[in-house]
Amino acid sequence: MVWKIKASPFGSLFIAFASLFFILVSITTFCLETHEAFNKIINKTDARNSSEPDPAPQYEIETDPALTYVEGVCVFWFTIEFLVRVTFCPVKLEFVKSVLNIIDFVAILPFYLEVGLSGLSSKAAKDVLGFLRVVRFVRILRIFKLTRHFVGLRVLGHTLRASTNEFLLLIIFLALGVLIFATMIYYAERIGAKPNDPTATDHTKFKNIPIGFWWAVVTMTTLGYGDMYPETWSGMVVGALCALAGVLTIAMPVPVIVNNFGMYYSLAMAKQKLPKKRKKHIPQAVQGSSPIYCKGDLNLTCNSTQGELCHVKGGRLLERNRSGKTSIKHSIKLFSQHFFFNSSCYGDKEGNAKDG
Question: Are residues 133 and 192 in the same domain?
């Protein structure tokens, strides 16, 4: 019972809103800690005895204690949440293999290590403490915890996993295009070089092919920072071809990815609405000569005075009765009314079945 309440964000509104609140507060605190208004220099050391000719001064910066206290409260909540979930988890192995649970543990651990080493004065402890301050960036990974509370983020994750082949194809196309156009822009700029500048180092920034890789990536993605651009007519032709090739390359796998997102989103919305429909009032059984309609994927047969067996195939309801007459329109109308609510056909099997 505790696991169902804790694992499902909709099992308890209080836990869901509290978890969302602490996630947002923790991320906000992480961002504010980098602002100079919340940092002050408490110690400045001039390394005059250093062997270096012009040693740089060493600074020791302290973050505003208020932010540290706020972060401590957030970490305390995440720790309690993590311990409750790992304690009452029915399958410990699946819990350990979950990516979100690994992120939770990695984001919590540095805070306790930093607190434990802050009171030590040894050089090794200070070095480890400095490393932990750098590793603070893992706290930003808590943003992925929001996937537990928002269906759209979970749908996005499923879409990215389902579109792995399309992303791989896109990367291959981009890599080939970058290699080809970086080589072309390098030689195109050299062709337009001045006679007294055979290496083309004075009038262009494309001094070698690896530098052209950056330009090709920026151009093919239609980003265009403007830090590098061709200055010869031949280079401009290559640049135009590179931009057109980039647009066509990126546009090819996008429809497949969009279709995957639409499919998973529709399934997620249907899964959310399904339990609500089951809780509605169950209508009375159809009387007289009207048949009773069943859900086809359960392969159940319903007793009726006229109807023999109802099957759902391809989204259509086929009714066979002793009179030999078929009314598709009337069948679909009644099927839409009784698909989720006819308890005489479903029984306990459908009521206890998993959503999906």
Answer: no
